[in-house]
From TrEMBL:
It comes from the Bacteria. InterPro entries: BatD. The chain crosses the membrane at residues 438-462. The keyword Membrane applies. Keywords: Membrane, Transmembrane, Transmembrane helix. This is BatD family protein.
Length: 585
């Protein structure tokens, strides 16, 4: 903002033109935390390179506003220039408005520091409230947490609501800082649209809209912090002025609101009475073990399914493995999940399906297995066990006895008749004369003679190829990044069985692949941003969901157990996803 005033021949005494003044003026030396402070830096000579202080302890609400005044008095010119700020306190205490600097006629001048005391909030008459005061009283961002003292791996929902009083109008808002949920497994629940609802807040009528919903599973016991969500809101605030028709006028302003930082106290799972079969499951579950058939012939196959169904941290524990007889050929299980997530947490079913092929006839028992989970409502461990299942193989070869007769090897002495010790020596070797062949005129001679002629076009083509590669800088970068992605994917394959090393290597491979294709640092982006970029490039939703799912698995692996089967499946899925993206990008 810039103001300019020119007044001619005002009867007042002129100031000494040789004296340079640069000073700070405060509207008050003491104010409440809910009040505003006006700060003005003024000078009587024009200057350049004005540097304000950092205003520690305050937030700049408005400014700098520049004002210039020039007057002529009895032929003598007087001049004044000022920079003004409106500040809002951020905390109680005593703060210093530090020195500001400006350059006048080549010399640097500094203002004097001034101390300001910020007290507790004070009651202000309604006619003294600023636009920001009215906005802050009628706009609130609240984080509603479902539970503040959950158990480890018990779901906690966080809903961010923006409450708006009917006295103001919100035009637009944008997130300034999305919270990071450290030490939590988190899943956002996307909103298709914003819906405005009427409600009451602090006993007054309000409207509210849900901005964000997220479900958290704490992965560490103790006090954990949920970072606040911050928004920049553009809104219209009513003023005391009226238009020509008597209607109240509104003034537009911007305001930053935050949902306060929340702390939850996560309780550790009790050690007393914890069974050995407990593998981290928390919630309410039902456990099943079943087979597709119990009577079959040798070389036929059957399916054995181990499944857990219910409500809880279904993605964060490992299913128990059955103990099968060694006479049965068992293939690696196929993992399947059917899970949906709501504000109350995950619910659905996870299962492992084992393909079993018996080689011999007979009866083979599959012993019962146990599954233990912790019920946070009952605050105790519950164990469910399956019954023994007998597989009856009717037709097929009989299994051989494991004991076999030992075979002995007898050594016999070699007898040699007298006078026949040298019968094996050939007395007629049938030797042939070796003929000498000349190199000149031979096939090899002509090949060496013509080789320079054949190598010249090959060398020319090779040189052009190298020149094209050297000019293609972007192509070289892409090839280098692709090579790096293959390197990390190869590292992940070698690390199968080592959960941490495998998922670290695979996550690097995925990000470096996108770096090669999109020429950006995707490791700095959130999963939603990566999905949006892939969609812009023409990738289909199935491939995008597969890629995001792999990244989520890499993040989940830090806090939950993953089997070798799941690692192998993730590795194969990574190869398929990269292949699909290659075709689409």
């Amino acid at each position: 903002m810039f103001l300019f005033a020119l007044v001619l021949f005002v009867p007042t005494q002129a100031q000494d033109k040789d004296e340079v003044l640069f000073e700070v003026k405060l509207s008050k030396k003491s104010l409440g935390i809910n009040e505003r402070l006006s700060v003005e830096f003024s000078m009587n000579r024009d200057g350049d390179n004005f540097q304000p202080p950092d205003f520690e302890g305050f937030r700049v609400v408005m400014g700098p506003t520049q004002s210039i005044s020039s007057m002529w008095v009895n032929g003598v010119r007087s001049f004044s220039k000022s920079y003004s700020y409106i500040l809002a306190p951020t905390a109680r205490g005593t703060f210093t408005i530090k020195q500001a600097t400006i350059v006048i006629d080549g010399e640097t001048y500094k203002s004097l520091p001034e101390k300001v005391t910020v007290t507790a909030a004070v009651d202000k008459p309604s006619d003294e409230k600023t636009v920001d005061d009215i906005a802050s009283e009628n706009l609130h961002l609240v984080a509603e947490v479902s539970k503040t003292d959950p158990y480890l791996n018990e779901p906690v929902s966080v809903v961010y609501k923006l409450y708006v009083s009917p006295a103001i109008n919100v035009n637009d808002f944008r997130p300034l800082d999305n919270p990071k949920y450290n030490n939590f497994w988190s899943q956002d629940l996307p909103l298709t649209r914003y819906t405005v609802e009427n409600t009451t807040y602090q006993g007054k009528p309000y409207r509210y809209v849900i901005l964000k919903r997220v479900v958290l599973y704490p992965q560490k016991s103790g006090k954990l912090e949920i970072e606040p969500l911050s928004l920049d809101v553009t809104l219209d605030v009513p003023t005391d002025k009226r238009d020509f028709f008597g209607r109240r006028t509104y003034r537009q302003t911007n305001m930053t609101v935050s949902a306060g930082r929340r702390t939850i106290n996560v309780k550790a799972l009790p050690l007393a009475g914890r069974p050995e079969s407990f593998n981290g499951a928390v919630g309410k579950f039902d456990f099943f073990v079943s087979t597709s058939k119990e009577v079959l012939n040798a070389s036929e196959s059957l399916q054995a399914k181990v499944s857990v169904k219910g409500k809880g941290n279904l993605k964060l524990f490992q299913l128990p493995e059955p103990s099968l007889p060694s006479a049965l050929e068992v293939y690696e299980p196929e993992f399947d999940e059917n899970i949906r997530t709501t504000l109350t947490g995950m619910q659905g079913e996870v299962s492992n399906s084992y393909t079993i092929v018996p080689a011999y006839r007979g009866k083979y028992p599959i012993p019962g297995i146990s599954f233990t989970y912790f019920d946070p409502e009952l605050e105790k461990y519950i164990t469910q066990s399956s019954e023994e299942i007998t597989i009856n193989v009717l037709e097929g070869p009989q299994r051989e006895s494991p004991t076999k007769e030992a075979t002995t090897t007898r050594r016999q002495a070699v007898t040699v008749e007298a006078g026949s010790q040298f019968n094996f020596i050939k007395l007629k070797p049938n030797l042939q004369e070796i003929g000498y062949k000349f190199f000149f005129g031979s096939t090899g001679f002509y090949l060496w003679l013509l080789s320079p002629v054949l190598l010249i076009p090959i060398a020319v083509l090779f040189g052009k190829k190298r020149e094209a590669i050297a000019k293609d800088i972007e192509g070289s970068k892409v090839k280098k990044a692709n090579k790096l992605a293959r390197k990390y994917l190869s590292t992940a394959k070698k690390a199968l069985g080592n959960k941490e090393a495998f998922y670290v290597a695979m996550e690097k491979a995925l990000h470096n692949y996108l770096k090669a294709k999109l020429k950006i640092e995707t490791s700095e982006f959130a999963k939603e941003k990566i999905a949006a970029l892939l969609k812009e490039k023409g990738s289909d939703s199935v491939t995008i969901n597969g890629f995001i799912g792999l990244i989520q698995n890499c993040e989940m692996a830090r806090y939950s157990p993953f089997s070798n089967v799941q690692m192998q499946q993730d590795y194969e899925n990574a190869s398929d996803v990269i292949s699909s993206l290659d075709k689409q990008l």
